[in-house]
Amino acid sequence: MKRSGRLLGDDLIQTTTATGQVVERLATLDERSRSEVEIYACGPMAMLAATARLAREFDLPCQVALEELMACATGGCAGCAVRVQTPDGPAMKKVCVEGPVFDAAQVF
C-alpha cells in the first residue's frame, strides 16, 4: 500500500491491482485501525459488488461510484436507472442526476 495523500487530515491509502488487494490490506489492520476505515470504490459492477460484500463483512461504510450509460444525462430518459434499497423499500434511482455515488449497502 502506498500513502498517496491526505484528505481532511486523515491518511488516504490507495489500493490498486498494482499495490495489492483491499482484502489483504484490511486483514492486516487491527480492530481499532479498521474502525477508522471508509471505502470508496469505482469500477465495473462485479468489482463494486465484491467491494460492497467486503465492506459488509468488515462492517465498514462504503460508497460506490456507478458507471452507467447516460443517454441524456439529465434524467429524462431513465436509461441509467439502477435499483436501490431505501427506507421505504426498493426504488429506481437515476445515476446521472441522483448519483453517480451511492451507499454500497443501498445498491448491493
Describe the fold and architecture:
By secondary structure, the chain is an alpha+beta fold. It has five helices and seven strands, in the order ββααβαβββαβα. β3 (39-42), α3 and β4 (62-65) form a beta-alpha-beta unit. The model is unreliable at 1-9 (pLDDT under 50).
Summarize the structure.
With 108 residues, the chain is α+β, with helices and mostly antiparallel strands. It contains 5 helices and 7 strands, in the order E-E-H-H-E-H-E-E-E-H-E-H. The protein is elongated.
How would the blueprint of this fold be written?
Elements (H helix, E strand, L loop, with lengths): L1 E6 L2 E5 L7 H6 L3 H4 L4 E4 L2 H13 L4 E4 L15 E6 L2 E6 H4 L2 E3 H4 L1
Parallel strand pairs: 3-4
Antiparallel strand pairs: 1-2, 4-7, 5-6
Biggest sheet features: 3 strands, mixed
Count of DSSP strands = 7
Order of helices and strands: EEHHEHEEEHEH
Estimate the mean pLDDT confidence.
84
Based on CA atoms alone, the radius of gyration comes out at: 16 Å
How far from one another are the termini? Answer: 26 Å
Give the uncertain stretches in residue-range form: 1-9
The percent range for strand residues is: 25-35%
Shape: elongated
Number of helices: 5
The helix-and-strand class reads alpha+beta
Question: What order do the strands of the largest sheet run in, or round the barrel if closed?
Answer: 3-4-7
Assign a percent range to the helix content: 25-40%
